[in-house]
Structure formats: structure tokens, C-alpha cells
Amino acid sequence: MKTISKVMIPALLLASTSAFAGLELHFTTQNNAAWVKVTDNDQPVAGATVTTDHTGNESFITDEQGRTYIFIPEIHSSAVNFTATDDAGQTVSKKQFIKNEK
To answer: Among its keywords, does the record have Signal (predicted)?
Structure first.
């Protein structure tokens, strides 16, 4: 019985941890802009809404690969807070440094 417990407990902990991974944001930055990718358990999230604290009320929708391109023309090389929300209402926020390349 002890052998089964030693195997089952780590397996259950691993399964419960991966089940709650949730939304994540990934960035590729370039020239006052960022490609933002939204994933849920490493799978792209299509149709997620992405906003920033530098683009006013404008929102951006991810494509089938979970990506959207966000250009921030008035940035002066600083951290930008990005927030993504999926159709189920899950939300994730993350800051990313965007460089002004003028």
C-alpha cells in the first residue's frame, strides 16, 4: 500500500498543477510594438481580447494562433501592462518592456 501511495501522490499533484495553469502571455517586441500570444495550458487562445495601459480604450483580438500585433506609437521605452481575457472570462496581466526605436 505504501508503494502505491508513493506513486499516486506525486501523480495527482502533477495533474492538479497542470489543470490550473491558466492563461499566459508571450511577447515578441520590435519597433514600438509587440506581437502578443495568449495561451491556455500551452494551447493558443483564438478570440481573446488584449488591452494595454498605453492604447486607451482600444482592444485587440487574437487570431487562430492566439496572436495579435499591437503598435504603440507614443511610447518612450518603458514597461507596458498587457491584459488578456478569454471567452470564458479568465484574465491574465503581465508587464513587458517596449523599446522606442526612433
So the answer is: yes
Q: How far is CA 1 from the centre of its chain?
A: 42
Q: Which of the 8 DSSP states describes residue 55? A: S
What's the pTM?
0.77
Cα-flanking dihedrals φ and ψ of residue 39, to 5°?
-130, 155
* Other C-beta atoms lying within 10 Å of the C-beta of residue 86: 19
Residue 100's pLDDT band (cuts 50, 70, 90): confident
Break the chain down into helix, strand, coil percent, rounded to 5: 20, 45, 40
Q: Which amino acid is at 69?
A: Y
Q: Please choose, from the candidates 41, 35, 49, the residue with its C-alpha nearest in 3D space to the C-alpha of residue 83.
A: 49
Across the strands, what pairs with 89? none
Q: Which fold has domain 21-98?
A: Immunoglobulin-like (2.60.40)
